[in-house]
Write a structure and sequence with these properties.
globular, Rossmann fold, binds adenosine-5'-triphosphate, 8-stranded mixed β-sheet, binds magnesium ion, 32% helix, binds iron/sulfur cluster, 336 residues, 4-stranded antiparallel β-sheet, 11 helices, alpha/beta
């Protein structure tokens, strides 16, 4: 299964805005493993980016980790990320050398006052201090070429504002790849890119995983991408992981009504053009006005009166497959 590199256990994150507390993550647990890709899926606002940013300790000041733990299990033993100072030496070292993140918006990662090449070189040299400038630049050029950037020998000297949005995105990914991280967190990294570049980037992530054993956390809206890249899948709804399992568990034996609805609402690559797509009924409730009992109950086709009374417990279905639904057996077997 691959050894665990990041372990998130019963993590609670709250945001405090206008003196109100928004419980954004409600006790989520998962492992990111060597040589595996964990995909996190779920509708907008369910807490995917907050999860990614919590691991990197990049959450805004108005948020707090209120419970649980985030551990990095590196060569020197366990490091409790959740207890580190956000911008302390140890956290900066982890970010620079061990865990890399790529975002939807590349400008958050690129510094406008330095050339792209300078920034990639800096990453390469931080990782390998014996690397001379000329060799670092040659590697930077190669990384940009791998990312499909035309004329990389010239482009390497340009600044972020001289790159198009798609090229900036690829520049940022090149930077993340440059430090050969043990863990790569990718938060919708290809949303703004065209299909052929998307494919190149996913191919690169696959080779990082299989050749270097990189552990990957990939956040995506695209079930086609999930079907192609995931080893494990975590389905999030309103700050909880409502279903977790291997890709086979989740795609072929979904046990939560929300997962089933997600699978019906999104085209899946390789399933032909004639898939019937049904949008998920209703919308995510306001997080300050949460439904009673099961959070999915107002939108659930399986809901019964008991679902309004309490949150369902998390149940192990089989192997690593777990679900938060009291009717999971019916959901799995009814063929709907
Ligand atoms: N900077 C912030 N200030 C206040 N609340 C925030 C902030 N960032 C996130 N939140 C809260 O956390 C919730 C989860 O946000 P998050 O960005 O993790 O969603 P997401 O699943 O990544 O959505 P998307 O698919 O749109 O990227 C939001 O619904 C919002 O209530
Ligand atoms: S517990 Fe009830 S409301 Fe919640 S997902 Fe399961 S059937 Fe639906
Ligand atoms: Mg997000």
């Amino acid at each position: 299964m691959g050894e665990t590199i990041i372990r998130v256990k019963d993590l609670h994150v709250h945001f405090y805005t206008n003196q109100r507390c928004n419980r954004v993550l409600n006790g989520i647990s998962f492992d990111i493993r060597k040589g595996r890709t964990l995909c996190v899926v779920g509708e907008s606002g369910c807490g995917k980016s907050v999860t990614a940013n919590a691991i990197m300790r990049l959450l805004p000041e108005l948020s707090r980790i209120e419970g649980g733990s985030i551990s990095y299990l590196g060569p020197e033993g366990e490091v409790r990320i959740d207890t580190l100072e956000r911008n302390g030496r140890q956290m900066r070292k982890l970010r620079g050398e061990d865990i890399a993140i790529i975002f939807q918006d590349p400008m958050t990662a690129l510094n406008p006052v330095y050339s792209i090449g300078f920034q990639i070189n800096e990453m390469l040299q931080a990782h390998d201090p014996s690397l001379r400038k000329k060799a670092a630049t040659a590697r930077s050029v190669q990384l940009l070429r791998d990312m499909g950037i035309p004329l990389p020998e010239q482009r390497v000297h340009e600044y972020p504002h001289q790159f198009s949005g798609g090229m900036r995105q690829r520049g940022m990914i090149a930077m993340a790849m440059a430090c050969a991280p043990k863990v790569l967190i990718a938060d919708e990294p290809t949303t703004a890119l065209d299909v052929s570049i998307q494919a190149q980037i996913f191919e690169l992530m696959e080779s990082l995983k299989t050749e270097r054993g990189t552990a990957i956390l990939l956040i995506t809206h695209d079930m086609g991408v999930v079907a192609e890249l995931a080893d494990e899948v975590a389905v999030m709804y309103m700050g909880s992981i409502v279903e977790y399992g291997t890709i086979e568990d989740v795609l072929t034996r979904p046990a939560h009504p929300y997962t089933k609805a997600l699978l019906k609402s999104i085209p899946i690559l390789g399933r032909g053009k004639k898939q019937q797509l049904d949008p998920i009924r209703g919308s995510t409730p306001d997080s300050f006005d949460r439904p009673k009992g099961c959070q999915f109950q107002p939108r659930c086709d399986y809901a019964g009166p008991e679902c309004q009374l309490s949150m369902p417990e998390e149940t192990l279905v089989s192997g690593v497959h777990r679900v938060m639904c009291r009717k999971h057996r019916e959901v799995q077997s009814d063929g709907r």
